[in-house]
Amino acid sequence: MSDRVSLTAAGCAFYATLARFPAISILISIYGLVFNPWNAEPQLQALRELPPPPAFELIVERVHHLVAQPSARLSFGLGISPW
After folding, report:
1. 7-49 pLDDT, tens digit each
2. Contact present, 28 and 62 (Cβ < 8 Å)
3. How many CA atoms lie within 13 A of 38 on its CB side?
4. Are 27 and 62 contacting, i.e. CB atoms less than 8 angstroms apart?
5. Are 74 and 25 in contact (CB under 8 A)?
6. What's the rounded Cα separation, in Å, for the pair 11 and 64?
7. Are 81 and 25 within 8 A, CB to CB?
8. Which of 48, 41, 47 minimizes the C-alpha distance to 67?
9. SS3 23
10. How many whole angstroms separate alpha carbon 44 and alpha carbon 63?
11. Number of DSSP helices (H) and strands (E) in the chain, helices first
């Protein structure tokens, strides 16, 4: 019987990595609906040190795109984002 723990762990890590950006989009959509979305910039700067710089730039780009959307569009995007 062969153990496939490393293969299973690699698969879990791969799918967890793929799930980060939709999860961030969902969180930003909720944030934009509940709070003033223009307050996101100082909070982004507080998170600058956590992810690697290329990942942080992707997150900032996505946040800026999402906060520019009207609230009706954010609620629609929040409704379809899990699918």
Report:
1. 889 999 999 988 887 787 777 777 777 766 667 778 888 888 8
2. yes
3. 1
4. no
5. no
6. 31
7. yes
8. 41
9. helix
10. 9
11. 4, 0
For residue 57, give the amino acid letter.
E
d(CA 26, CA 80): 10
Kindly give, in sequence order, each residue whose CB lies less than 8 Å from that of residue 32, ignoring residues fewer than 6 positions away.
40, 66, 67, 69, 71, 74
What does pTM read for this prediction? 0.51
**pLDDT for 59 beyond 60:** yes
Query: Any idea where the domains of the chain sit in the sequence?
Result: 20-80
Q: Which of 82, 2, 80, 78 is nearest to 37 (CA)?
A: 78
Tell me 49's DSSP state. Answer: T
